[in-house]
Specification:
single chain; 517 residues; alpha/beta; 6-stranded mixed β-sheet
Length: 517
Amino acid sequence: MPQDAAYIEMAHITKRFAAVLANDDVGLSVGRGEILALLGENGSGKSTLVNMLSGIYIPDSGSIFIDGKPCFFRSPHDAIAAGVGMVHQHFKLIPVMNAWENISLGERRRITIGGKKLPVKNPLVNKKRINEKIAGIEKRFGLTTSHDKKVYDMPVSEKQTLEIIKVLYRGASTLILDEPTAVLTPQETEKLFVMLRNMKQEGCAVIIITHKLHEVMEISDRVMVMRKGRAIGTVKTRDTTPKELTEMMVGASVSLEIRHNAPVLSHDDRLLKVQNLSCKGEDDVPVLDDMSFELHGGEILGIAGIAGSGQKELCEIIAGLRKAGSGSVTFNGKNLLGLSARAIRGMGISMSFVPEDRLGMGLVAGRSITDNILLRSYEKAPGIFIDRENGRGAAEDIVKRYDISTPSVQHVVRKLSGGNIQKVLLGREIEIRPLVLITAYPVRGLDIGASYSIYEMLNQQKEKGVAVLYIGEDLDVLRELCDRLMVIHGGKVMAITDPRQTTKEELGLLMLGHKTA
């Protein structure tokens, strides 16, 4: 149980980045044996706040206390030395090293010089001692990992466990986790929660950042909500509801229901047909294995699978960005395999692809909204000149239609929030009036308000008869939004189900490669 006195306390924290006030007089507290959830929309200041607690940023003003003692962190090393460890959403592991090497990397030992113990890098690696220490941590907190296994051979959940062991190995008694369940199955999420409860029982202070409200309600003791750089309030989890938390985050009443209308499908609506599709990746390893499915106009077909199950390769083959090994992909009876993305567009096939890497493959980060809108129309421009005036008008229409928050259409895309960046990308693709819309993780990293705007945009396309392929991570969303759900594992189709008639547990087993009865 958490103690009355705060173990970690941040008081009157303020942080600016040029003209942007990221944190404005923010306070945070968490006790030993307590799990605090940190909620807020994108740009609310959550990450900035915990980055100061973990030593990545230095506050402009304010104080940090650990067990009542003031601390000043100039680097993550200072924070680790004070017992604060952070597990980032994107893991900080070296793939070619095994587990125990990653855990002990950069370890320091102490030697005595002149009666004082000083930290020095350890020139000798004592594998036996390291593995004994790791085993002790695993036993204490209920964690398991394969010490000699290479990181590149690990599933996502084991990499996450490895990151947690790494910070505990270095003496952390406070753990910060940023979106820890983003790519986990329900079974893997439950294992993580068991770990966190064990850490709680051992007296650790845990701070978890997540957008998934049902997980907040399940795992946390208290919830702190931030909005526009300020702390709106902290409440006990048992005394609140997801709806109340959402209203605190956005400052207004928000519906948490994803609208769903049943599709009306017919044999003639089969716009996209994939048959026996196979593809090999690096090192000649199969990434798609005899995959077959159909996509109808006026439906949203969801794809669920753990990371690396072939989602990226499937999208790129359909969009003409990757070559397939065998099989066929047809659009209204026309074979697409072997054609480039430009050739597919040249055939008059109205297909849009919203990739997961929105600022790498989707948009040019350093260019304006107008320039990015023009990227979809430059091929149709007569002659060598582009009508920028029409492009500006199209950009202004998209900004207005999709409620994109920006100073102007000349604003550089990378300076927009994540939700607005995604609206620019999705709005641009929708405005070409596609018959097939492929979306890969369109709400990844977005807050609740932005996510629900994206869901509504997809629903509107479905109602217009567009065939929507939706690749997502949140099983609750997949079950509510999609008309059918295809579960894949290792490049194979495990099942195509009615998402409202299939439990999350059944879907999780399929994602792990286990056929259900």
